[in-house]
């Protein structure tokens, strides 16, 4: 059935967006607007793919993608938390650096191959294929809708639920949100502001890195290409606003944008005849629309961290 296939494809296409959005939510919850999502995802994509290609181990590739995202986020954290550099400039710099570094490493590796291609091994491609659960995956309709995805999909949903529970149901999570709204008050209450800023920014970077690994290992069918993240990091930044800074809402927001990404493959030409470029433009046009609307809204969203984008200098409290 065409509708079922479309929904399944939309869920798969939403996965890297979900990781990118979750990573950015973690950073913004402590008041840091990190525009380096595209760069962190690119570095994670490169690390995950290259390690996976060499080791043929999905778990090792996943861990290295996460670690690479953490290390790239550390650059941003040191600049903005310790040295109080401008968050927007630091994030944009991280994006330029991350995309450039990933492409440089990719080209360097490609030049040292005989056939000019980089491919994942059979072991890791088997591991990242759709999980088959005996009995459940074979169910009509339900099996295809719920039990026919790559491990990345289930990992993304679990991560969204875990981050949501952490932020809303734990004392540490409430402290994190307090830092995002008023770091001076949180500091006066005895919360270690610097520690939690570093922790959440680095955690967000690691999650973005895993999303990048999905792009290089799944979207491109196990073959390395340059610029494999393809702007999904920028969409993720806008999705944070669309999801109202709530990790669980990010699941639905990512699904909607994932559906827009694959729509061109499932609209019959006999129904609507539009150029392919129109469908390719839709996710980015929606992203721009969200940013414009959010910038002119008079009402302030209560979930928006009150100190977002403003560095905290303890001596000024």
Précis, in short:
This protein is mostly helical.
Write the topology of this structure:
Layout: H1 2-28, H2 37-55, H3 58-82, H4 87-110, H5 122-127, H6 142-146, H7 151-169, H8 171-181, H9 183-188, H10 193-219, H11 232-242, H12 247-262, H13 276-296
Question: Which descriptors apply to this entry?
Answer:
single chain; 317 residues; mainly alpha; 68% helix; globular
Report on this model:
The structure is a single chain. This protein has 13 helices and no strands. It has helices at residues 2-28, 37-55, 58-82, 87-110, 122-127, 142-146, 151-169, 171-181, 183-188, 193-219, 232-242, 247-262, 276-296. The protein has 317 residues and is mostly helical. The N and C termini lie far apart (60 Å).
Number of H- or I-type helical stretches: 13
Average pLDDT: 92
Write down the oligomeric state: single chain
Question: Helical percent range?
Answer: 55-70%
Structural class: mainly alpha
Beta content comes to under 5%
Q: What ranges have pLDDT less than 50 throughout 5 or more consecutive residues?
A: none
Q: What is Rg?
A: 20 Å
